[in-house]
Amino acid sequence: MSDALSFEGVTFTYPDGARPALDAVDLAIDEGSFALAVGPTGSGKSTLLRAANGLVPQFTGGTFAGRVCVDGRDTLAHAPRRLADVVAFVPQDPGASFVLDRVEDELAYGMENLGVDPAHMRRRVEETLDLLDLADLRDRSVRTLSGGERQRVAIGAALAAGPRILVLDEPTSQLDPQGAEDVMAALQRLVHDHGLTVLLAEHRLERVAGWVDVAIGFDRGRVRSGTPADVIGHLAAGPPVTRLGRMLGWDPPPLTVRAARAAAASATPARLRSVAPAGNGDARGSVVAEVHGLHASYGETTVLRGLDLDVHEGEVLVVMGRNGAGKSTLLRVLAGIHEPAAGHVRVLGTRPRPGVDVALCPQEADELLFNDSVEHEVRATLAARGEAGGAGPWLAALGIAGLAAHHPRDLSAGQRLLVATAAVAATEAPLLALDEPTRGLDPGSKDRLVGFVRAHAIAGRAAIVATHDVELAAAVATRVMILAGGEVIADGDPGSVLGDSRVFAPQMTRVFGPGWLTPEQVAEALT
Amino acid sequence: MIDRRSVHPMAWIAWATSAGFVAFLTTDPVYLLLLWAVSWFVYASHRVDADHARSFRLFLTGAAVAVALRTALVFFGTVNAANTTFSFLEGLRLGTILVIFGTFNAVTDPFGLVRMAPRHFHEPALAAALALSIAPRTVAGVGRVRDAQRMRGIRIRGARALPALAVPVLERGMEEAHTLAESMDSRGHGAGRRSRYRPQPWTGRALLIAVTAVGAAATFLAASVGGWAVLHPQSSPIVWPEADPLLLAAVGLLATPGLVGRREA
Predict the structure, then answer these.
(1) Minimal Cα–Cα distance from B215 to chain A, Å?
(2) Residue A84 with chain B: CB contacts under 8 Å
(3) Are B98 and A91 in contact (CB under 8 A)?
(4) Which residue of A97, A332, A409 is in closest CB contact with B180?
(5) Is the omega angle on the peptide bond into residue B237 within 30 degrees of 0, that is, cis?
(6) Dihedrals φ, ψ of A379, to 5°?
(7) Domain ranges across chain B
(8) CA A135 vs CA A107, A112, A129: distances in Å
(9) Exposed/middle/buried for A203, CB within 10 Å: 0-12, 13-18, 19+?
(10) pLDDT bracket for residue B265 (50, 70, 90)
(11) Measuring CA to CA, how many Å separate A208 from each of A158, A205, B203?
């Protein structure tokens, strides 16, 4: 087997970088591998991915030493466009990567640039539409797509160009669980049947660990590659089954639900069957928000149909459902920035007052950062309500106190999301709404976010979280609601709602049955 | 939805150029106001989607401001009825051209234009299309940022609040531009080879729109050169503007797109 992609002694420092983003990296990825880059935020994963087609250093500047070869071509000697026939790159923010407007045209764009002949192009576009289930979106404008749809179109556009190497930066971050599974299955089929080489970075390891055959661990610019068991099995921040295996001393720690079931069967956690799982608590105080007969629409599209909902003090309500089910719209209505078509919406007995009774951290959380430091960002919120206090407690609660003096622009996507969350939470609004709050968050940051949201609820306030991340739901929810087609199809405690679902069940439920949500909870019951 | 069966972009270029040319040739308020009406009619029957509709409203506001500003210029000279009328009509002409451009922007997909540009014009066409897409994207971005800041209790009012709105919009714009440039290069843009995916067919309807539009422009050109109709009403002394039936009909021809419907059968 030959190397599809090789890094030889690559050290790279960004123009203003204090330390190298990549530090003496030696790495070879064989043709036909399915490789996963794992590691905390800011450890160099995105940089390595962007170096694979020469965007680093050709678009970034900085100091670069060593050699990156793609299919035998040196990336310093070839501009990214001269490598487009071999390697395709899907960036973290797929929306900003679209060049044309119509989905079908966008899929063909790369092939047009490569001079693929029209008949062949037409066939390849149709195949891609089927492969990623995009046929219904063919005539849509890319600007009107939901986050998950955009991600699938971006992957399709990269694939349609027929590259031999596909590089993807967090390709499932905006997908619902089923959508993520479909994308991973499609990629695996291309790897197995057509010899495509795939390199992807992902924080939600539970979605990808079982699919890949090579893992590359990142730690402050240094890399170590090996089998997934070798690399992921040793991570403190692995997927839930791996974390459980480490806590219980299973060797090797399992990477997949299947392996965990086998290990659990032989390690006989028989006691588990006699213990009722402890939930995330169901302390319910008085009503914070109430919604009756809510209908909402965008233009001519009806998004929510007759929704009823009460949110109580002490509750963390997690709203789930596939892309486009109406989760974000519900949050926007509750936050008072989307006018409902019909129905009754009250927060603390009045119409929602944004920034006072309710505060929403939107999906595009970047869009509320405008100050020159993280500290000032939180202070701007405090100043708007006439408070002179410091940002310290908010930053500490989210584990970003160390970033206080940084410019938000210099942070990673995940870190910026935490800053935005702190800036919104600083309103001290009794109802905190978070839309997809774990995009780009590494597992460590995610744990801190979970702690923060639970503390908010325990203090007698309430939180509502829209997410595709089932493990987040398992860890943070006191109540889970599932939306489909703008209607509520399930609502109840997380143990029963998530336990009853094939799509939304977290890993612990899949291994030990309904009611078991987090590895910590299982480990506690066993010791 | 962007329909493949919608009007060929070249027909829209012919329409907008001709309508703009007509506005350029006259300061007669009858023709100019009729052009506003025709533009509205065409916009209403062909607008692409909500984002474009929003940017059309932006052009309408711009046109109104242009009329007001141009009229206000009179205060720099002698203020009398004749001068005011003259300034107002000049402003109205400028506003008309803006409204026509706004209509063009609202009914065409600028990227459709790129796709049909001849190979050698592909680069400038793409640059122009990306520039045109900035207006609707910025309008959408301003709305989102305003909502996001309200969540922090920050109201975008007055100059002091401007950074809270402008910084995220501009920063995101820069970031998107950078990602887009990277994406285009990564996807082989400018690598030298090019083929074209499913070119949009030139249809009878597109031909009709183009021919009627050019006809309208030719009629006004003939009137301007031949002098058989008044295109610039006298402002001193002020007289009631004239309306030549043939020229009225010519402006009416520009409404053709609104009459032929959105898409091919």
Answers:
(1) 32
(2) 186-188, 191
(3) no
(4) A97
(5) yes
(6) -65, -30
(7) 9-113+199-260, 115-186
(8) 12, 20, 5
(9) buried
(10) very low
(11) 19, 5, 49
Q: Which of B139, B119, B128, B123 is nearest to B55 (CA)?
A: B139
CB contact under 8 A, A105 and B115: yes
Token output for B96: 């008309």
What are the pLDDT digits (tens) for A413-447? 888 999 999 999 999 999 999 999 998 898 889 99
Phi, psi of A118 (to 5 degrees): -55, -40
The residues, ordered by sequence, that sit 6+ positions from A424 with a Cβ below 8 Å of its Cβ are A359, A360, A361, A368, A381, A432, B151, B152
The pTM for the full model equals 0.86
How many alpha carbons fall within 13 Å on the CB side of residue A286? 4
A350 exposed, middle or buried (CB, 10 Å; 0-12, 13-18, 19+)? exposed
For tokens 């233009």, the residue is A299
Chain B residue nearest residue A119, CA to CA: B197
Domains of chain A with bracketed CATH: 3-248 (3.40.50.300), 287-526 (3.40.50.300)
CB contact under 8 A, B150 and A355: yes
pLDDT tens across A87-119, in order? Answer: 999 998 888 889 888 899 999 999 999 999 999
- CA-closest candidate to residue A315, choices A285, A357, A292: A285
CB A366 within 8 A of CB B144: no
